[in-house]
Amino acid sequence: MIIGMLAALTIVCGNVSPSHAHRAGQPPAEDSIAFIQDLYSALHVRLPSSLPELYRQGSGLPPAKLANMTVRTGTEFRTGDLLFFGGSEPEFAGVYTRNNRVAISRSGDRLVERPLQQLLSDAKLIGVLRLLSESDQIRLGIVLRAEEFVGTPYVYGAKYGQTKSFDCSSFVKTVFAQTADIDLPRISREQAKQGIQVSKSELRVGDLLFFRGRQEPDRIGHVAIYAGNGRMIHTYKKGGVQYTDIDRGVWAQRYVTARRIIQ
Asked: Residue 11 pLDDT > 80, yes or no?
C-alpha cells in the first residue's frame, strides 16, 4: 500500500530498514523533493524545486509542540502532511499516509512506506508542513485506502460489508465509507447521481468516473475512482482491484461522465 496516484512509479513495501535506503541511512534530498512534487502535482499543488526551500516555508509549530507530537507518534498528523528529517537542514522528507505510516522515496523512483516510529529511531523529525486543505486530505486518503485493496479479486455482485472480494460499486462504496464516512448507493448507476458533474479536464483525485456497461451499452455499468495523472483505480475482471489509464482502449470508448463527491 502506497500512494496510488504514483502508480506509474515502482512501488515496494518490503521490510527494508530505512538505514539501507541511502548510504548513511536516509534517502537523498533530491529523491524526496521529486517524489513529493509528483504527488502534490496530482492534487494541483505547486511546490518549490528544492527540499530546503520547501522546508523554509515553515511548519508553524514551536519546538515543544513538535517534540510532543513526536512522542505521541503522530496523533496529530494528517494524511498528506510533509515530515522533514535531519539536523539544521532537512536531509530527506516523507509524506504521512495513515495509521502512523510515512511514504518516502529511495533510489530515485522507488517508494517505500515505513512506520513513523521506525523512522524516528533512525532520524530526527525537524519539521512538519501541512499544505493540503481538509478536502484534499480526504481525497488523498481515499486513494491511499483504495490502494490497500490492490489485487483483491473481482466478483460480480460481491456482498457489501466484506472485503475479500468486490465488484466495482461495492469497492467504491467501501472505500468512501471507510475513509470519508460517506454512504454511497450500492449500484453504480445510482452512485452516478451523487455529488456534482465535472468534465474530464476538471478531474481531481477522488472523483468518480462512470462507464457504460458491456451488456447494457445504454446504461451506466461501471465506476472507478480517479487517482490522478490520467489513471483510475477500480476492480474489473482478471486482476481485481487495479490501476488503468482512463483513456485506454474500451475505457475511452465507454466513458460517460464524472462526479465529484468530495467538494
From this structure: no
Which is catalytic among the residues 20, 22, 44, 168?
168
User: Would you state the pLDDT for residue 126?
Assistant: 87
What's the pLDDT at 70? 52
How do residues 50-67 score in pLDDT, each as one tens digit? 888 888 876 555 555 555
234 labelled catalytic: yes
Q: HSE-up of 167 (CA within 13 Å, CB side)?
A: 12
What's the rounded Cα separation, in Å, for the pair 35 and 113?
13
Residues of the chain with CATH 3.90.1720.10: 4-132, 150-260
d(CA 27, CA 54): 16
Q: For the structural domain made of 150-260, what CATH number should be given?
A: 3.90.1720.10
Domain 4-132: what homologous superfamily? endopeptidase domain like (from Nostoc punctiforme) (3.90.1720.10)
Say whether 44 is catalytic. no
